[in-house]
Amino acid sequence: MKNKIQILKNLFILPIVSLFIIACNSDGPEIEQPEKIYYDQAQKRMNANNFNGAIESLSAIENMYPFGKYAEQAQVELIYAHFMNTETEAAHSAAEKFIRLHPRHPNIDYAYFMKGLSSYTRDRDLLYRFSNTDLSNRDISGAKQSFSELTEFLTRFPDSQYVPYAKQRNVFLRNMIAKNELAAAEYYLSINAFVAAIRRANYVIENIPNSSENYRALKILESSYEELGYSDLLNDVRVVININYPDQENENPSRERSWSWNFLDDSKPSGVNN
Fold it and tell me: How far is CA 166 from CA 4, 75, 111, 262, in A?
């Protein structure tokens, strides 16, 4: 009876051992790992602008293979996929998570850049792009956060390939923040609250230098000083206007700096070596 049991054990064990040996045979064809299948699938979906599908594939890698070869790359590409899918809050959260988990990753500059970029994207909406909507008259707290985060990125990574885009974006945001401050200043001016108008205009000049709104701020100061009878300050501000804007007394030199989101098509983070 014992011999029969032993024979039965051998019948079950031998095929398993044989399969294990075949699977480990370095001379045989390499079996593609499921993790790579998910990653390749994500790339194909992103190339087809199927960002919902790409998020699904990348999330599968993150959840099922958290310590695999493609795990970190999947996490950084989730930032891009969420952003391109107009899920900016998810993109911002994914960027923060990546920064927290992988502070020394080669793509850490990308995470900081996208974190700042995703904080304010109202001008990416079709309504803004095909209309004359002035976003500076709306809540711009997100623009201020984005400006701060992109400034941090520029400080941390001055040699990053994304620096030119961050600088351009910050010019756009800086001008918007300045316009928002001056919209309030002009309101105060209209109700004869001249001290409050002066405070707002001075804030723009002192804290948002080189914005497109400096001339406008100086003109608000000029009007306010004149109304209040501050002759010395009035003369000083007129000197500044004449020196810096000699040919623009009869026109408003405020100009909106252009910004384009088209660069995003080529801004996907570099991948791992297959």
Answer: 76, 22, 13, 14
- Asked if residues 205 and 174 have their Cβ atoms less than 8 Å apart, the reply is no
Q: Cβ–Cβ contacts within 10 Å for residue 244, how many?
A: 12
Nearest alpha-carbon partner for 219 in 174, 196, 251, 192 = 251
Q: Decide: 82 and 53 in contact? Cβ < 8 Å.
A: no
Q: Does residue 154 contact residue 146 with C-beta atoms inside 8 Å?
A: no
Reduced 3-state DSSP string for 211-223:
CCCHHHHHHHHHH
Contact (CB, 8 A) for 35 and 68: yes
Q: What is the pLDDT of residues 74-128, one digit of tens each?
A: 999 999 999 999 999 999 999 999 999 999 999 999 999 999 999 998 776 655 5
DSSP 265: G
- In angstroms, the CA 1 to CA 3 distance is 5
> What is the C-alpha separation between 103 and 97, in angstroms, rounded?
10
pTM of the model as a whole = 0.78
The whole-angstrom separation of Cα 112 and Cα 49 is 23
